[in-house]
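sorry for the late reply, my laptop died twice this morning and i had to redo everyting from scratch. anyway the thing you sent over, i finally got around to it. pasting the sequence first so we're on the same page, its 164 residues, then the predicted structure underneath. double check i copied it right bc i was rushing
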Amino acid sequence: MEQANQHPDHNLQVDFGALPQDLDVPGFASAYEEHRVANEDSAFSILLTFIGYGVLLVGILTLIFGPKSVMVNAFRGPDLFQMILLNPGPVASLGFLLVAGARLLNGNKQQLTPEAYLLHSYSIEWQGELPSGQRLQVTYLGDNRFQFSSVVDDAATDGTPAGA
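ok and here's the structure:
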Protein backbone atom coordinates (compact mmCIF):
# COMPACT_ATOMS: atom_id res chain seq x y z
CA MET A 1 0.00 0.00 0.00
CA GLU A 2 1.21 3.51 -0.72
CA GLN A 3 2.65 5.73 1.95
CA ALA A 4 0.61 8.54 3.47
CA ASN A 5 1.16 12.02 2.04
CA GLN A 6 2.46 10.60 -1.23
CA HIS A 7 1.48 13.79 -3.06
CA PRO A 8 3.04 16.60 -0.99
CA ASP A 9 2.90 19.04 -3.92
CA HIS A 10 -0.89 19.02 -3.64
CA ASN A 11 -1.53 20.95 -0.45
CA LEU A 12 -5.29 20.82 0.03
CA GLN A 13 -7.13 23.07 2.46
CA VAL A 14 -10.53 22.34 3.96
CA ASP A 15 -12.25 25.01 6.06
CA PHE A 16 -14.71 23.48 8.53
CA GLY A 17 -16.50 26.81 8.81
CA ALA A 18 -17.34 26.81 5.07
CA LEU A 19 -18.87 23.31 4.84
CA PRO A 20 -20.25 21.95 2.56
CA GLN A 21 -17.28 22.61 0.33
CA ASP A 22 -16.44 21.24 -3.13
CA LEU A 23 -12.76 20.60 -3.73
CA ASP A 24 -10.89 19.92 -6.96
CA VAL A 25 -7.84 17.66 -6.49
CA PRO A 26 -5.51 17.95 -9.51
CA GLY A 27 -4.32 14.58 -10.84
CA PHE A 28 -6.46 12.52 -8.48
CA ALA A 29 -8.21 10.42 -11.13
CA SER A 30 -4.97 9.14 -12.67
CA ALA A 31 -3.32 8.53 -9.27
CA TYR A 32 -6.36 6.60 -8.03
CA GLU A 33 -6.48 4.54 -11.23
CA GLU A 34 -2.82 3.58 -10.68
CA HIS A 35 -3.66 2.56 -7.11
CA ARG A 36 -6.66 0.52 -8.26
CA VAL A 37 -4.70 -1.33 -10.97
CA ALA A 38 -1.75 -1.99 -8.64
CA ASN A 39 -4.02 -3.56 -6.01
CA GLU A 40 -6.06 -5.87 -8.23
CA ASP A 41 -5.84 -9.61 -7.65
CA SER A 42 -3.95 -11.56 -10.31
CA ALA A 43 -5.89 -13.86 -12.63
CA PHE A 44 -3.93 -16.87 -11.35
CA SER A 45 -4.83 -16.18 -7.71
CA ILE A 46 -8.51 -15.72 -8.62
CA LEU A 47 -8.48 -19.05 -10.48
CA LEU A 48 -6.69 -20.74 -7.59
CA THR A 49 -9.26 -19.32 -5.15
CA PHE A 50 -12.20 -20.67 -7.16
CA ILE A 51 -10.59 -24.11 -7.49
CA GLY A 52 -9.76 -24.11 -3.77
CA TYR A 53 -13.31 -23.23 -2.75
CA GLY A 54 -14.63 -25.94 -5.09
CA VAL A 55 -12.35 -28.60 -3.62
CA LEU A 56 -13.18 -27.40 -0.08
CA LEU A 57 -16.91 -27.62 -0.84
CA VAL A 58 -16.56 -31.15 -2.28
CA GLY A 59 -14.63 -32.27 0.81
CA ILE A 60 -17.12 -30.78 3.27
CA LEU A 61 -20.18 -32.09 1.41
CA THR A 62 -18.59 -35.56 1.17
CA LEU A 63 -17.86 -35.44 4.89
CA ILE A 64 -21.46 -34.55 5.69
CA PHE A 65 -23.40 -36.54 3.07
CA GLY A 66 -20.85 -39.22 2.09
CA PRO A 67 -21.62 -42.96 2.21
CA LYS A 68 -20.99 -45.15 5.23
CA SER A 69 -19.05 -47.69 3.18
CA VAL A 70 -17.24 -47.79 -0.18
CA MET A 71 -16.65 -50.90 -2.29
CA VAL A 72 -13.11 -50.94 -3.73
CA ASN A 73 -11.74 -53.44 -6.27
CA ALA A 74 -8.95 -55.40 -4.61
CA PHE A 75 -6.91 -55.70 -7.83
CA ARG A 76 -7.20 -52.16 -9.26
CA GLY A 77 -7.53 -50.20 -6.03
CA PRO A 78 -9.67 -47.08 -5.60
CA ASP A 79 -10.26 -44.67 -8.47
CA LEU A 80 -10.34 -40.87 -7.95
CA PHE A 81 -14.03 -40.75 -7.01
CA GLN A 82 -13.60 -43.56 -4.47
CA MET A 83 -10.48 -41.88 -3.10
CA ILE A 84 -12.52 -38.70 -2.44
CA LEU A 85 -15.23 -40.77 -0.73
CA LEU A 86 -12.61 -42.56 1.41
CA ASN A 87 -10.71 -39.38 2.40
CA PRO A 88 -13.04 -36.36 2.59
CA GLY A 89 -11.05 -34.70 5.41
CA PRO A 90 -7.79 -34.40 3.44
CA VAL A 91 -9.76 -33.24 0.39
CA ALA A 92 -11.30 -30.41 2.43
CA SER A 93 -7.86 -29.59 3.86
CA LEU A 94 -6.40 -29.43 0.34
CA GLY A 95 -9.15 -26.98 -0.65
CA PHE A 96 -8.37 -24.82 2.37
CA LEU A 97 -4.65 -24.86 1.52
CA LEU A 98 -5.38 -23.81 -2.09
CA VAL A 99 -7.47 -20.86 -0.90
CA ALA A 100 -4.81 -19.87 1.66
CA GLY A 101 -2.11 -20.12 -1.02
CA ALA A 102 -4.10 -17.85 -3.33
CA ARG A 103 -4.47 -15.27 -0.55
CA LEU A 104 -0.74 -15.52 0.12
CA LEU A 105 0.00 -14.83 -3.56
CA ASN A 106 -2.00 -11.61 -3.36
CA GLY A 107 0.06 -10.36 -0.44
CA ASN A 108 -1.18 -7.34 1.50
CA LYS A 109 -3.09 -5.66 -1.30
CA GLN A 110 -5.83 -3.38 -0.08
CA GLN A 111 -8.27 -1.69 -2.44
CA LEU A 112 -9.21 1.70 -0.99
CA THR A 113 -12.31 3.70 -1.87
CA PRO A 114 -11.65 7.06 -3.56
CA GLU A 115 -12.49 8.88 -0.32
CA ALA A 116 -10.14 6.73 1.77
CA TYR A 117 -7.38 7.07 -0.84
CA LEU A 118 -7.70 10.86 -0.76
CA LEU A 119 -7.54 11.03 3.04
CA HIS A 120 -4.67 8.53 3.22
CA SER A 121 -2.46 9.71 0.35
CA TYR A 122 -2.86 13.48 0.20
CA SER A 123 -1.75 16.18 2.59
CA ILE A 124 -4.83 18.06 3.79
CA GLU A 125 -4.76 21.15 6.00
CA TRP A 126 -7.80 21.28 8.26
CA GLN A 127 -8.84 24.80 9.21
CA GLY A 128 -11.18 25.37 12.14
CA GLU A 129 -13.12 22.74 14.06
CA LEU A 130 -16.29 20.79 13.46
CA PRO A 131 -19.22 21.66 15.73
CA SER A 132 -19.78 19.16 18.53
CA GLY A 133 -22.05 16.28 17.53
CA GLN A 134 -20.94 16.56 13.89
CA ARG A 135 -18.57 14.45 11.83
CA LEU A 136 -16.88 15.01 8.48
CA GLN A 137 -18.31 13.28 5.43
CA VAL A 138 -16.24 13.06 2.24
CA THR A 139 -18.07 12.26 -1.02
CA TYR A 140 -16.36 11.46 -4.32
CA LEU A 141 -18.14 13.30 -7.14
CA GLY A 142 -16.10 11.84 -10.00
CA ASP A 143 -12.93 12.80 -11.88
CA ASN A 144 -10.95 15.04 -9.53
CA ARG A 145 -13.85 16.44 -7.46
CA PHE A 146 -14.81 15.82 -3.86
CA GLN A 147 -17.41 17.29 -1.55
CA PHE A 148 -16.64 17.79 2.14
CA SER A 149 -19.65 18.23 4.41
CA SER A 150 -20.56 17.85 8.07
CA VAL A 151 -23.30 15.47 9.18
CA VAL A 152 -24.80 14.66 12.57
CA ASP A 153 -22.74 11.99 14.32
CA ASP A 154 -24.95 9.00 15.18
CA ALA A 155 -22.71 8.06 18.11
CA ALA A 156 -23.13 11.53 19.64
CA THR A 157 -26.92 11.20 19.75
CA ASP A 158 -26.67 7.92 21.68
CA GLY A 159 -29.16 6.28 19.31
CA THR A 160 -32.12 8.43 20.33
CA PRO A 161 -34.34 9.63 17.47
CA ALA A 162 -34.45 13.36 16.73
CA GLY A 163 -38.05 13.79 17.94
CA ALA A 164 -37.75 11.73 21.15
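The beta strands are 7-15, 21-24, 122-127, 134-142, 145-152.
thats about all i looked at so far, will dig more tmrw
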